[in-house]
Design goal:
Bound molecules: zinc ion
Helix content: 55-70%
Radius of gyration: 16 Å
Largest sheet: none
Distance between the termini: 43 Å
Number of helices: 5
């Protein structure tokens, strides 16, 4: 059981590192044409950028399927990636971008800092000059009291 938890945790940590990297170097790089739909006003409910969610979700499902019989590391890693995806959706899509009107303003200091860091990321509508590419692991400066950065 401990091993399962460790794999889930590893899935979470790896996904934060991997999505930071892919966001900074790929989405704001060669795949900007897709990701820019998230930085500009979108017309409908969905944006082309949602494709990344589908790809990450697909990878998690494949891992879960591969490991489901022996309940090995692939299964738990897939669970970790799925959990990351769900947390990402709740924080990024619901709490910050209000794609579903379920949650009000974040109350905890940590969630406020996350929202602030992500707003800073969205200040730039362009491919370059971005900051704060991660979601959960953010620089200390965003924890400072009042005032926008
Ligand atoms: Zn971005
Ligand atoms: Zn965003």
């Amino acid at each position: 059981m401990i091993t399962a938890l460790l794999w889930i945790m590893l899935g979470l940590v790896l996904m934060e590192c991997f999505s930071w990297w892919i966001h900074k170097y790929i989405m704001h790089g060669v795949l900007w044409e897709i990701h820019k739909t998230h930085h500009r006003q979108s017309k409908g409910y969905f944006e082309l950028n949602d494709l990344f969610t589908v790809i990450f979700g697909g990878a998690a499902i494949v891992l879960i399927f591969l490991g489901i019989e022996s309940l090995d590391y692939r299964f738990w890693l897939g669970c970790g990636i799925s959990l990351y995806g769900m947390l990402y959706f709740i924080l990024h899509d619901v709490l910050i971008h209000k794609r579903l009107n379920l949650l009000g303003r974040p109350k905890s200091k940590y969630l406020q800092a996350i929202a602030k860091a992500h707003r800073a990321h969205h200040k730039s509508k362009e491919k370059e000059d971005g900051e704060s590419f991660g979601l959960f692991l953010i620089p200390k400066k965003y924890f400072r009291e009042e005032g926008d950065i």
